[in-house]
Amino acid sequence: MKNENITEDSLVEQNAEPVLENQLPAEESIAPTAATKTVRRSFLDKVKFDSWKAWIYLLPALILLAVFTVWPIINTIRVAFLNDYNSLGEQGGETFQLGIGNFITILASGDDFRTALTNTLLICVITVPLSTILALLIAVALNSIKPLQKIYQTIFFLPYVTNSIAIGMVFAAVFDVVGDFAFPDLVQSWGFVNNILMKMGLDPVNWIDGLGDASYWPKMFVLIVYIIWNALPFKILILLGGLQSINKQYYEAAMIDSTPRWRVFTKITVPLLSPMLAYVLITGFIGGFKEYSSIIGIFGDDMAGGQLYTMVGFIYDALPDAQYGEASAAALILFAIIFVVTMINLWVSKKTTHY
Amino acid sequence: MSELEKDVIQNEDTSNAAVENENVEIAQSTNPVGSTENLVQGVMHEQDIKTVAKKQTVGKILGQIGLYVFLTIMAFVVIFPFIWMIATSLKSVDEYYDASLELVLFPSFARDFKNYAEVFTTTDLEMYFLNTVIIGIASTLMSLVITILSAFALARLEFKGKNILFAGLLATMMIPGELFTITNYKTVADFGWTNQFGSMGWINSFFNLTMPFLVSVFYIYLLKQNFMQIPEELYLAAKVDGTTDFKYLLRVMIPLALPTLISITILKMMGAWNTYMWPKLTTTNSDYYLITIGLREAFSSVDNQQPDIPLQMAAVTMVSIPLFLVFLFLRKYIMKGVSRSGIKG
Fold it and tell me: Using an 8 Å Cβ cutoff, are B113 and B246 in contact?
């Protein structure tokens, strides 16, 4: 077998390494002598160097990765740049022209994709800052109490372990009007939120089932509330972890100087927390760009009649119709956006984080 | 994702060192302000010191009360959907229509658990439960085996191209999963796995729902890091005793990495419980629906103006309770896994 060769070749390479290492100046005086090191090294080589064995251990993972990860990457890029691609035609031997037709189609003529892009951007821009600020406040508050801290921490983490479809249905029900909103006499339940609004003397709102352009913001509002609620636990967990690893001495020093709380917060807490904040922001943006199942949970499969399409929703909706070309193009755009946002975020946080 | 994950792990490691470096800067930026100067410069009697101290404690207590009030309000907002869900699931439809707010959180328990029983008669939820449990357990077990084997190879064995392979694996983590779905959808269709009618239905559905998600590069990475923390001397000692690699993996490494393995298991099971998009795309036969899609389909009443919300909430509660139980008993592992991965479900 070829494996034999590989093993021997690399054995030689491996043997060359210890020599190099031995030439380096020994840092510790009690370090093992060169002789024992070489013995140990050659022993290591013998026991560790079974190249073919390693590949056998890796084989199941590699086969599955090849089929379900590597091939999709190649194929998606390929399909995205084939004009008017259709898979049946390809099986029939049809060839397609290389080009950016799919990108032009979804960007220029498809209203759906533009709706998806706007919605996704809106969701990101609104929910990420709000949920991060809220999570930061809660984490700081949690970090400065002692009794009951664990209990509060558990409660705040609870939304994380939920099924986003199931709890989406709960949010829909909390806002939902049972009966026809257009005929108030026939409405059987205005829903919890509207009941409160009406007790306060305000008009009820048709949150979930409204039609037309005017119903966009009520729906968006419900969605944003849900997304923020859903995003809090992860952010609180990360930020609290970051807060707890800040050296207490800074706070003690600030206390001795009786520094005002706000100054302590802006001059000590936030700078030392900046890597965690950057992490939370980046994952928040990525999560926002991939928002999908929360919308299905609240508004059902048709994503509020297409009003609340998102990027991912657009991709998935194109698949059953075998619009692979357009879906692939959209997926690449999504990847590009996520990549750029991540890079910008990393760049900004490198400039502003404290180390 | 992956890069970020790595970043955070690194950040955690380096944060302490960095904290030390910042020492000087911080000390400079927090000049004593206002009242401190008085304290230091002014000649003070003991009584004055006492009153100042008293004032400080009063302020501290008030601050603490404020914190608790804030946290309690936020905590209530956070768990309100759950309370509302459970309370509503215990109501009759008429009770639900009653707009009086006292009834919102305190139902009169007129229906007891009738809604829960009704869920099973009106929907096939129990079948979806069973499907999900089978798929969840099977995919978790297979995934664990694959993850352990590859993490071991990457952590302990030497072979040509190891670093390139590992870097390549990490690079795939950056790509959003949606990009894979498109081709995978076509692939499983070509394999015939989406054809879930006839005698092969169960097998097709099983392959379809498990195979594409067995390998998680992130879990491999996580476990590899964990394996590398186990001292190499143990491995060499085992080798001297003539233990085979596989036996060593089984007897030493797996027990030592158990906490990480438990975290992976829980996250993987939760993933199976919460997955929606893939089964929705590829499951054509409702006999093989998983719980989430079954739940959504059973109450997908977009045109229906009169949904039975208490019944719906009973079903939602039943879907949520296993997750709560897992969370209650295994909180430590979940939080540890999540804080390192940032993976949702």
Answer: no
